[in-house]
Amino acid sequence: MSSPVEIPISPRRSPAAEESVVADAAIAPSSNPAADAMEEGLHLFPDRRPSAHSLSPEQATIHMVKAMLGTGLLSLPLAFKHAGLYLGLVLVFVISGICLFCMRQVVYAAHYVCSRNGRELIDYANIMRGAVEAGPSWINRRGYFFKQVLNVNMFIAQLGFCCVYFVFMADNLEDFFNTNTNIHISKGAWMLLLLVPILAICSIRRLNILAPFATAANVIYFGAVAIVMYFFLTNLKPTSSVDKVGDWRNLPLFFGTVMFAFEGVCVIMPIENRMERPQQFIAWNGVLNFSCVMVLTIFATIGFYGYLAVGDTVHDTVTLDLPNEPFYQVIKLMFVACIMVSYPLQFYVPMERVEKWITRKIVPSRQTLYIYIVRFGGVILTCIVAEIIPHLALFISLIGAFSGASLALVFPPCIDLLCSYAQRQLTPKVWAKNIFLVSFGLLGFCTGTYSALADIAKTFTS
């Protein structure tokens, strides 16, 4: 999963007087919350002035789809094995639907916080901060703290993706060379060899230099996925050959894998911030709903038919189940090339935050040195963690359950509760809805993290 560059917060371009009216209207008490909510919907998503970075709805949809399709897609057949063919199909729709609802909560909260604070653009962490500062007195002075809590979760998620990339590339390179050549190198050695090109590519600090390579990687990725889908559809087994409902003890691993694959809450605001007409992003037939339905369709198709084609012998990534034919074997190298280009894009988000801190705290003459020390140290750290836990499926499930559940299912309803409080709209329905979402997220977080850690521990003791 790749993330667009976060856009810095900038002042709203509309007149200051209009900002004041909007902010005051957003927080003023009301005797008729329902009517006010309808009125709020008329001005909550004002148009933005066009710029060189503006996105059309079509461009935003492409970015959303690209951002949510990554290595987790290729582990979904294994996830369906954990849940069973039919139960997995039902649950992937349920989990994805809940994630989409929570994404919409984040977008609505973003525009409320912007109207309240006189901003036009905002990122996920500052949405959390603005919501907390709009909350009750016992918490509204802790906005900066909760902003950093969310930032830490995003930091862990992004570096976790980078660790998964190391394992994914090493898995596929080891399998390709063991199958097709006389070169036999262990997975751990492949990670060390990959460290050299990854360090080189991560020394590039400007994403516009990587943009042409990223575009080419996206074309290759979709072509490779199409070939994998062709293999599934031409090698389907009867449904009687697979479990319809899996062991309930494996459901947490299914949850973590789906969350890793689908979780896109960190990418929605950078994309939404670039749209001239935000209404086109949040409408019922807008960018967010349409792109999520597209991604969900791809996920359900890959997971369902992948498990039905490969069966219970499915590997951590389905590329390892492809036939030993040149046509299919080359796909492994295609995916490795795509992921190698995606690594610096995932790596950019946490490094951007670290570099901002360095430019504030370190004297200019030493900033470049410290920036590259941190960059190279971060790459080496992800490689070390991947060497310690070289099990792709368990790693994906752990990152999905730990960071994915908190970012996509726990924080959004909490933000919605705080914004509803500030707008005097805390009805029993709002409480019930958000308590359910938080409970669902915490259940997946706890069970998924525990199951992944327990299975990882077993691999070290077996």
From TrEMBL:
A Gene Ontology CC term for this entry? vacuolar membrane
Location comes to: Membrane
Q: What is the scientific name of the source organism?
A: Steinernema hermaphroditum
Query: Which protein, by its recorded name, is this?
Result: Amino acid transporter transmembrane domain-containing protein
Among Pfam families, the record links this protein to: Aa_trans
The keyword Transmembrane helix belongs to this UniProt entry's keyword annotation = yes
Q: Which residues form the Amino acid transporter transmembrane domain?
A: 55-451
Membrane topology according to the record: Multi-pass membrane protein
Looking up InterPro entries in the UniProt record yields: AA_transpt_TM (IPR013057)
Q: Where are the transmembrane segments?
A: 83-103, 149-168, 188-204, 211-233, 253-271, 283-307, 327-349, 369-389, 395-419, 431-453
